[in-house]
Amino acid sequence: MSAVAFGSALLPFRSDVSVSTVALVLVIPVVVGAVMGGFTAGAASVVAGFLVYDWVFVPPYKTLSVGTTQNWTALVVYVVVMLLVARIVGVLDAARTETVRGHEVMRRVSEVSELLVGDQPVDELLKTIVATAQKVFNVPGVSLLELEEGRLVVVASAGEPLRREELHQLEPHSGLPIRVGTTPGTSDELRTVALTSSGRAVGILAMRGVPIEETDRAILNTFANDAALALERAQLREQALRSKLLEESDRFRRGLLGAVSHDLRTPLATIKVASSTLSRGADLLSKEDTSELHQLIEVEADRLTRLVTNLLDMTRIEAGVLTLHRVTTSVVAVVEDALTAMGAALGEQRLEVIVSDSLPDVAVDPVLMGQALVNLLDNAVRHAPPHSVITVKGDERGDRVLLSVADQGPGVPEGERETIFDRFTQLSTAGRAGLGLTIAKTFVEAHGEQVWYEEVPGGGARFVISLTRHVDAKR
Hints:
Beta-Lactamase, elongated, 3 domains, alpha+beta, 17% strand
C-alpha cells in the first residue's frame, strides 16, 4: 500500500491526530516498499511519504511551505529515520533472499551430485549428464562430445542439437573462435566447458548460452567437475569389466581345451584303436572279437555325439535362445529314456533301479532332463570300480521328487564339493571333472530346479536332482 493511500485514509482524522502520529503511520509504506523492491523502492516511498506528509498534514496545508521550526524538525527526522529504516529493511531482505538462494543452490548441487554418483553404464551416464545440465541450468541445448581418432564426436545431447556449422567450429583445427568456460555471455552464444579429471580431458560440454546468475555459473563449474569424475569412473569400470571378460574368456578357452582333451580324446582314441584293429587284423579276429570292437566303436561314437549335443544345448541355454518344452511325464519314463540312451555305455556295471510307478508326475523338458540324467550316469560309470553297483533311485519329499544316481567309487573330497559342478574343475582324486556335471547342472537349473552332491555311507558318491511335482499329478 502506497504513502498516498495511507495519507488518504488518514485525511478524515487530520484534526484528531498529531503530526508525529502521522509520521509513525507513514513508516508502513516505507517498510513495505523496501521489502518488495529493496532500498530503491524504499527510498521512493520515503520521497512519496515526505510529499504526502508535508502537503496534507503539515500546516499550511496543500503547500510545500513548512512554516514553524517544529514542523521542519519533524520532516527532517521523518526523512532520516525512514531512509535508515528503508536501508536496514532492504539489507535484511537481501540477506534473507541470499540465504534462501544459498539453500536452493546447495539443494541443486546435491541433486546434481546424486544423479552422477550412481553406478550407471557409460551410455546412460552420458544421457544423464546432458539432460541434467539442460534442466538445471535452463539453457536451450546441451551436447557432450568426446575425442575419437582426432575428431570431436557428439555422444549425447539434450534440447536443441548442434548445427553442422557449430560442429565445424568446435573442431580442434577449424581456426574459428569459440568462448570457453563460464564467463557471462549472450543467451544463445555457443561455448564449451571442459570435463577434466586426473589431469586429462574426458569430454567437452557444449552449451548454447550459460546461466545468468553468478551462483549458477559456480554450480556449473561444480557440475562439470562432478560429471568428469563420474564419467571417468564409469569408463574405468567398463575397462575393468572388459579386462575381466577377456581374462574369463581366456580361462574358458584354456579350460575348454583341457576338457576337450579329456572328454573327447579318450573316446576318439578308443575308436581309432578299434577301427585300426578291424582294418589290419580282420582275418585274425574271431567273430566275437569283431562284434565287440564294432560295439565299442558304436558306444564311443554315441558318447561323442551326446557330448557335442550337450555342449550345443548348454551354449543355447546360456545365450537364452533355447526354449524349454515342458510336458507332464512320469519319473519312470525319464529314467527309462536315459537308460536307453546310455545303452551299452553302462559296460560291466550292475544297475539297480528303484523308481516306483506311484511317484507323482513331473513337468519337465524330457529331452534336456534325460540328458542331465545321462550325464550323471556317465559320470558314475567313469568313476565306479568294474562290476560295482550303480543305483538310480526316486523318492518323494513334500511337493518335490528327488531323483538320485549313486555309485561305489572314491567320492569327492570335502574341500572340493563346492566346486564339483563348476566348469573344468580339476579334482585331486579322480582327475578332471570334465563337462558332464557342468552340463547336467545347466540343464537342471534351466528348469528352475537344483542338483547337488551327497556322500554315500561306506564310500561312493550320490548326485541328486530335485524336481517339482506337477500340480495336477495324482498318486
